[in-house]
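Input.
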Amino acid sequence: MKERLKTAVLTVLVAVSLVQSYLLIYRLPGTGSVVVSSAGYVRTDEMGELRSVEDTLYPDRMIIHMGEDKHTIFYPDSAFYKLIYARIQARDFAAFQVQLVSGADWAKIAADNPGIELSFGTGLPVPLLQKTMRLSADAAFETADIDRIWIYTGRGDEKPRAFFFSADGRDVYEAKQLDLTVQDVLQHVAFGEEWTPYTPLDKHTLYVPSKPIVLAEAVLETDSFTSDQMQRNLFADPAVTRNIHEQDGSEIYTDSKRSLQIEDEARWMTYTDPAAAPAIEADATESVLSAVDFVNQHGGWNGRYRAELPGGGNSDNDSDFSVRFQQYYGSLPILGSGSVRYGFMNLILQQGTVSFYERSLLETADVGKQGPQYTLPGGQMLIDRITNIEDVHGRKVVDLYPAYTPRMNGDTLRLVPGWVAVLTDGSIATFS
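Output.
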């Protein structure tokens, strides 16, 4: 009897110990556990979700060339985009040979040959592309920044060809070894046959839909991260911070070294850490990895984002590196500005250390309600609008894509679709 009692008591003690261990590891609210990243950042408050760098590296669009000068475009998050990109990511590319971009008539190749063109915006360094694609890079290729990948098959070719275009517009690298077949390419291209046709302009540098496209507004309920949450996430010891009230409605918190500015009306925060770093040229891959890690530990991700390196990432100071994370809702980017600065995060790093960080404090659900539908112009009407924008601004339109403009209505965020025209100086014109 005594032995059975001992056994029962021991069983209860073991069970209690297991429960306590579970609570310590998985932390109920208020237990105060922390997660320390590999870079030493301390995650002190559960806010947004965690992301890996691979989650932020993907093309901003996929142009499908079908031969006979027929084309269409798939945007991120669409079913065909995800299917094709996943298949390309699973393939190997090796034995790169460099040549001048001017050595081929790419407009004719786009018009005559079925293929897939992936656009990476301002470009990504090859070591970052290797995080999301299987590339065997040699010494010459691994120093390149790539803004386009083009895989096509010519008439009578026994295997497809794959070209990686440098962001400076001078060189193109052909992967002489790839494990895609002609049939693979043709199958992927066939997905575009029933999609909205696009017409090429200006030697295939712009594509416009041949008919209007219909997109729905999205309506999202919002909440906000608080200044207390951001202090706990950005300062090693929030207890030593002091508050400086600004007359313009913003507040500044500082620990005498770092500063955090909160703009309540705009629901926007700016963090600066002016720690001096060695004046060594910034490394792009290290900077992007550090930026993703920093966001993971200091606020997290309230949605899906895509990494962009404005101007190649380097600022006026070679030791500084700029990273922008562009937010997407569904297939389209969110372009906030003015009083509604929502839809992006900006960071500046010095040798992997973040010296500047700005982001919205708005929290939204991943999926909102569908609002009214908008019919965006296409065909000749859209071409005329592009021509008019060029005449008014005195500059050429070099890029065109659909995007959402955020508008606040109380505690509700409206995402209104429209066209974005990018001019040669980088400025944009939006219209619907």
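Residues 1-44 have pLDDT under 50 and may be disordered.
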